[in-house]
Design brief:
Length: 278
Amino acid sequence: MPGKLKSTKKPVEVARASRPLSRERLAPARGRGQEAHATAGETATPRPKGKPKTAYTSPERLQKIFAALDKLFPQAECALRHDDAFQLLVATILSAQCTDERVNKVTPGLFQKFPTPPDFAALAQPVLEGEIRSTGFFRNKAKNIIGMAKKLVADFGGQVPRTMEEMLTLPGVARKTANVVLGTAYGIPTGIVVDTHVFRIAHRLKLSNQKTPEKVEQDLIKLVPQERWISFGHQVIWFGRKICQARKPLCADCPLESICDARDKTVGESREVEKSRS
């Protein structure tokens, strides 16, 4: 029988030991048309870094936003009709999940019948529910408005308080409502109103990526000068109603289109196009 041939393969351990790893072997290949490995003494060319992200909150971009809003809505005001801080407080509570237009149809008759906090405090809840039914969520709103009026009478002499801390003790009042009343009725800049329009536009303009209105407000007050807090809220709300609408923003009419890269931007839509379709 022929003898067995001796294997020429080295043991795995020996083979591994005889092939020391080198930087050249592990280095990624260069671009097409270039050598795969660096020659001795050659300095490897660093890979170009990716395109830097846009500075969404840079002072220059923020100034463009402020300037555009000033030009579009130089005299922006709260759309809720009211004669005093109490009426505005009631109207703002009613505006939750309801349009300002609908609220403005309800409040004139409501305030004519019940003009003061004691009048509301004395109401039976079913009576107020009937008056505000068309604003939606009328049972909870009626309960909060009556509770708010009772607390005003009992703790604040029938007057709407002038601090955020005191406002937040009232039933039905969170930061948005408090900011509306303190800013609009008293001219006190305690924060920025973050309603559905402001929340949406803050995300479209990449001014915040937070998930709650309270956290979005905290981002905005770091970016917006305090002297603009009141006007900025009103301007952005009107901007959201007229141009940066929820379902189909009118980007062709928007002066901020060039600095906006929102995912739901539209192309070629304008008021003229919308009118031609109607």
